[in-house]
Structures are given as structure tokens and as C-alpha cells.
Amino acid sequence: MLENTQEILNVLENDGVIAFVTDTVWGLGCLPNSQKAVAKIYEIKKREKQKPLILMSNEVYNLLDFVKPIPKVGQQLIKKYFPGALTIVTEKSNRTPDYITSGMSTVGIRVPDNEIFREICEIIPNHVLATTSANLSHQPSAKTYKQALENMSGLADLIIDDFGYAAKGLESTVVGVLGNELRIFRQGEIILDM
After folding, report:
1. pTM
2. Which CATH number belongs to the domain containing residue 32 in this structure?
3. In the list 29, 45, 98, 139, which could disulfide-bond 131, CB 3.0-4.6 Å?
4. 26 lies in which domain range?
């Protein structure tokens, strides 16, 4: 499906930022180990420094190195809702840089259910992206390829076509899993029965 895999790789490996489709809304992402690219995302979005990015991958096991062992209640959510529209915020490991989490001790992880996003992850080193939504801060998220182009042209280094695998348009639900406590930070597509 993806024709420009080499171009995607070149952009990311040279501290670049890509815009891409997910199952919920369009995302903006870079390699987690590129502090320069993370800084660029904040600049592009005019995003407040105290708002962390999240880590996304095509498979949950690619994300496990970036977090401390996930409490049982979190593991149950992963079994039930990954891949899908759920972001789990849990304690980060030393592998997750502070510049991604705004210095916080937690990080959000998610596995989107979208074919194009999966293919992007398959071709990149470690299969993980540091991400946020593809829009300027306090503006609505991009829900279509056209909106992503309008929002990010001249800002993102590469905007990847969705090849018809469109985003559904509703943000992911964000839930904190700390110990055995669950806390909903944002109600999105998945309604959690607490």
C-alpha cells in the first residue's frame, strides 16, 4: 500500500516530522529518540511545553520497553481494546525521554487500528512514534486527508496519503492506570465501564 517507504524513513531519520492517518484522527509524529524532531512538533503546533506527547505503535509489545510493568487492570484494558481508540497513561521507564513526557513520570501509549499507520510503524526503527494530533493547539483535530493538508502543509515534512483508510473522526479515550486505580482523562470513542 505505502509506496514511499524510503521517503518516510529518510524524513524520520533526519529529525523530520510526518502527518499520518490513524483510526481516530490524524496524527503528527517523529522518532522518539529525536529531541530535535520533538521540539519541531511543539513548534509546529504552538503547543504548550507542559503538554506531553504519547507513544504509538502497531503492536503493544513494541511499547512495553517505554513503560514500567503495567498493572493488571491496565493489561486487561489492553487485551480488550488494543488495537483501538484507547490511550493508556501509565508509569514510564527510563527509556522514555523526559522531553516527550514534559518531565512527567507517566507516558501515554496507544495502538491505533489503521492499516496505513501499521505499515508506517513496520518500516521504522523500533516501530514506535512519538505523536500528537495533526492540528494547531486549541484547533480541531484533522479528520480527513484534506484537513491534514490544510493544517500541516508547509509545517510537517511529509503528509502521508490515507489511501482510503479514513480516520473515524473521534479522539481516543485517555485513561490513567496507576496502581489499580483507573482515571479517565478524556472521554473519547471508547466508553469505559468503570
Report:
1. 0.97
2. 3.90.870.10
3. 29
4. 5-186
